[in-house]
């Protein structure tokens, strides 16, 4: 089954004031709207939860039933494809009018990013078209990377089922890496030189304050390291 809403709204957060202006109504603890589309043949019922999760249902107005072919990935019928595209266009219009773009998916990833922007004025650089959710921060004086926030499969770090997560790779002195690896919630660097980098899952198991402390050390390390 295709999760159309997740693909459209990934890395976007609702602006609830804009939702109201657009026509969303608050019902209990969520926002809700119904819109007709594709010549009124279909009705979209869109719900936005307090945390920003978007769900939707597409109803065939002729029989008042849910249009199930919309989400069947193997369904290549031309009409179903047209309805799916029209629904995506409707969702995209809502996204463009009512949502704010985030750099990342995880709340902690965005908090750390905003703290770095505020402290250093450094913005993430997204260098890989294939991995659009992975960005790096570099020391502007030396052009050396001091932090990377990457999309990673959790099973690459832990003995657990596959799940897409976001991690911070932080560059530090080797002696600091050795010390941190003896503590809980720190992992050998993913996709980086394990002598100089360490990985932290950005799921709040390590506090923002601790991560920013390491980021500051990394920022200083990448500056000093270049001058040796």
Shape: elongated
Question: What string, H for helix and E for strand, traces the elements in order?
Answer: HEHEEEEEHEHEEEHEEH
> How many DSSP E strands?
12
CATH architecture of the largest domain: Alpha-Beta Complex
- Name the helicity range: 25-40%
Mean pLDDT: 92
CATH topology of the largest domain: Aspartate Aminotransferase, domain 1
Describe the structure.
The chain is of the alpha+beta class and 228 residues long. It folds into two domains: 4-101, no CATH class; 107-225, Aspartate Aminotransferase, domain 1. It is built from six helices and twelve strands. It has helices at 4-9, 16-22, 78-98, 107-120, 174-180, 208-225; strands spanning 12-14, 25-27, 30-37, 42-48, 54-60, 65-66, 99-101, 135-138, 145-153, 164-171, 187-188, 197-201. The strands form three sheets. It has a five-stranded antiparallel beta sheet. A hairpin with a 2-residue loop joins strand 2 (25-27) and strand 3 (30-37). Helix 4 (107-120) crosses helix 6. The longest helix is centred in the middle third of the chain and has 21 residues, at 78-98.
Which terms summarize this structure?
228 residues; 12 strands; alpha+beta; 6 helices; elongated; 5-stranded antiparallel β-sheet; Aspartate Aminotransferase, domain 1; 2 domains
Q: What does this entry show, briefly?
A:
The protein has 228 residues and is of the alpha+beta class. The protein has six helices and twelve strands. Helices cover 32% and strands 27% of the residues.
List the helices and strands and how they pair.
Blueprint: H1 4-9, E1 12-14, H2 16-22, E2 25-27, E3 30-37, E4 42-48, E5 54-60, E6 65-66, H3 78-98, E7 99-101, H4 107-120, E8 135-138, E9 145-153, E10 164-171, H5 174-180, E11 187-188, E12 197-201, H6 208-225
Antiparallel strand pairs: 1-7, 2-3, 3-4, 4-5, 5-6, 8-9, 9-10, 10-12, 11-12
